[in-house]
Amino acid sequence: MKRRLTLQFPREAVHQPITYRLAVDYDVASRIIRAQVAPNQRGTLVVELSGDIDELDAAQEWLMSLGLSISSAAGEIAIDPERCVDCGICSSVCPSGALSCSTPDWRLQFDQRRCVVCEQCIAVCPLDAISLKL
Amino acid sequence: MGFAPRTPDQLLERQRLGTLQVCTALDFRRRAASSSLEQAYADTHVLAAASCDFTDQGQIWISLGPCDPPLRIRQARLGGVSAGGGYGAAELCLPLGGSSDDPQRRGGIHVLDELLQGEQPLLELQGEGTTLQPRRELQTALGSDQLSQARLLLARGITENGVVAVSSREGLLASPFGGLLGPFGNALFNGCGARSIGLTMPGLHQLGAGSAVLVAGGRGHVLGPGGGHQPQTRRQASGHARAPGASLALSVAVSELNRQWIRPCWFDGHGAAALVAVAAPVLLLGEQEARQAAVPDEELEAPVLDYSIPRRIRPGFGTVSYGELMAGAIQVDGQRIPAAPACSLKLADSLAHELVMQLQDGRFPLPARLEPLSQQGRLHPLEG
Questions:
Q1: What fold does the segment set A2-72 form as a domain?
Q2: If you count residue pairs, one on A and one on B, with CB atoms under 8 Å apart, how many are there?
Q3: Which residues of chain A does B351 touch, with a Cβ-Cβ cutoff of 8 Å?
Q4: Contacts of B345 in chain A (CB under 8 A)
């Protein structure tokens, strides 16, 4: 099964080789959707984990034992049509192609089924038109 | 059939009689492609071209009425945004944008938006305290009906061409175009391509001080050459600029603005900015104007610049066509990079349609300038 998690790293845990240990010790594959990790700074990793349910639970427990805060809230991206100006900036950073803006009408299209909720679009929208609906 | 020349006076007469044929710059290109350029010229007298870009290069000038006792402004804030004072007894000047570290994430455009919504932002004035203007403080809520005069001044309201921004640096780069993924993860372009004023009318040669233009739904005017005005830029054989080129400064009364076409926004790492749609009429007076206005996106070019290098002259990767940009991907250094607009093509198109209606109804004047646009102008490097 797959599980999408947002991991918040304290400064002292940033050096941990998380994805390596998840693969070797728990047989869990990690697909990194978004990462903001730098030495000696707090970090964020949005990751999709794939593996057996028991191993995923064990892996999650191990991550918590390292002091990571884990959020697995199943949110979804919401676009406010009143604020959106269909500029297309969000579509250029969307890793899954869920957001697109193209000819002929240049109206922003959002395919929720393709969205991996990486939240990158929220950060780059200059109109504050995109939010995470929990 | 040929290209029978026309004069501006003939077109004015047609507008008066209600026989002026107007279409958008994009529709004219479609007509020329589907029939012939001669036929499209014969069927069309005037084009409505438009763009809708992000900008922080502007200000909102507000003239207040006198208070009692009088106050000579030294410091001022409106809606929490610092406004320049020292322009006399009652003049305020709000920067359109704002600094990137403002915790409120606000600039003058946000205050303007509140005024347009009918809200009353808080006005805080500190006075100099002179014999004739003794008052030292004033606080009041200011509604749009209390503004004696208020104008939006855009230092670079129309630019002939846009640019394509990319980043060669690892990670997400905050830029005035939006987030750039590096290295070479995405490309963002502004300028709106073939539907824009500058790529329909190369050199912006029909416009000059006094020309009427449609700014966010309101009738504004050209003040003269704008910020970064460089008419002597590199050009294609057709006359179209290969770089931003000529630019125009614009002015419009705040009371004329329509919120549909002007929006407040915020760019992380850059600050507040406005998205403003601008449209202008382009007269088809002969073959040259028609040929230039019919050049499609596939033959129009914009420069690709590396915004991750913070230098006066950014490294470039040549030019790409708007055809590639509109198709969603460009090739840079042999790499395919997804491209997206950092402008609103949809709002540009809707304002162009609005201008078509106003020109046909005779509600918008055909271009008449008091003086031609200066053909001089270049950027003088600032040393220090």
A1: Alpha-Beta Plaits (3.30.70)
A2: 78
A3: none
A4: 86, 88, 106
CATH of domain A76-133: 3.30.70.20
Give me the residues of A, 104-123, that contact B with CB < 8 A. Answer: 105-107, 120, 123
Instruction: Output b/e per residue, B260-292; b: 16+ Cβ within 10 A.
Output: ebbbbbbbbebbbbbbbbbbbbbbbbeeebbeb
Q: What are A87-106's pLDDT values in tens digits?
A: 999 999 998 899 999 988 89
What is the token pair recorded at B322?
A: 């708007």
Would you give the distance in Å from CA B140 to the centre of its chain? 32
CA distance A92 to chain B (A): 6
Q: Please, which residues have CB within 8 angstroms of residue B303's CB and are 6 or more apart in sequence? A: B163, B164, B242, B243, B316, B318, B319
User: Most B CBs within 10 Å: which of A99, A103, A106, as the mutation test of the B interface?
Assistant: A106
Averaged confidence pLDDT in chain A: 88
Phi-psi region of B234 (alpha: psi -120 to 50; beta: other; left: phi over 0): beta
Q: For the CA atoms of chain A, what is the radius of gyration?
A: 17
Residue contact A88–B326, C-beta within 8 A: no
Helix B25-34 vs helix B345-360: crossing angle, to nearest 10 = 90
Q: Which residues on B lie below 8 Å from A83 (Cβ)?
A: 263
Cβ-based neighbours of B288, under 8 Å, separated by 6 or more: none
| Nearest Cα residue in chain B from A100 | B340
- Judged against a pLDDT cut of 70, whether residue A73 lies above it is answered with no
Task: Give me the residue label for tokens 């402004």.
Answer: B73
- Kindly state the tokens that stand for B129: 């305290």
Helix (H) or strand (E) holding B33: helix B25-34
For A82, phi then psi, to 5°, come to -70, -35
Tell me, what's the ipTM? 0.89
| Res. A52 pLDDT band, cuts 50 70 90 | confident
Amino acid at A118: C
| Contact assignment for A88 to B342 by CB distance below 8 Å | yes
What ranges do the domains of chain A cover? 2-72, 76-133
Dihedral sign, Cα of residue B359, residue B362, residue B366, residue B369:
negative
In this chain, the answer to whether the domains covering A2-72 and A76-133 adopt an identical fold is: yes
Answer whether A128 sits within 8 Å of B266, measured CB to CB: yes
Q: List CB contacts (< 8 A) between B177 and chain A.
A: 89
Beta-carbon count within 10 A of A113 CB: 6
